[in-house]
Amino acid sequence: MSGQNVASLSGIITFRLCEQVFGVPVHSVREVVPLAWLDRPPQLPSLVHGVLNLGGRAVAVLRLDRLLGLGDGRYDLDASILIMRDDGAGRGLGLLVEHVDGVRSAELFSPMGDAGQDSFNGCVSEHLDLQGQAVRLLSWDRLLLEEERRRLTEFQAQAQDRLALLDEAAS
Length: 171
Prior knowledge:
CheW-lke_dom
């Protein structure tokens, strides 16, 4: 994505993680939910913080700090989960972030240049300036490798089966 494409975005959700500011295009996010109780089944992959039961749907919540190689974030009461749009397999994923600053109009951002190869798989698509503050714009479709997506889909299917068993037991 080049700076000329940033203006075509309807908005950018900005958030904090490990003392840095990141953003994702609004169209990549389905909803933002406060940090909630998460199921932590055995053999949880290290990138997965837990599983959120979102209206009967199992949503794996990923540790974005670990995905980006930032170390461990601090998740206090103002932590949030970005529920990302479905990846086509009908299973959305959540990204755990320390604090959501809000939705900003793309017009407020000035391009500082393409991120180039300074991030794994080019997941930081561009460096932006928001009134003197550096923002790393993430590209949701490049954040995970295809193999990671496949394994997470399998994990979510298992978690969904567990939720279904609980529903059957409650009936």
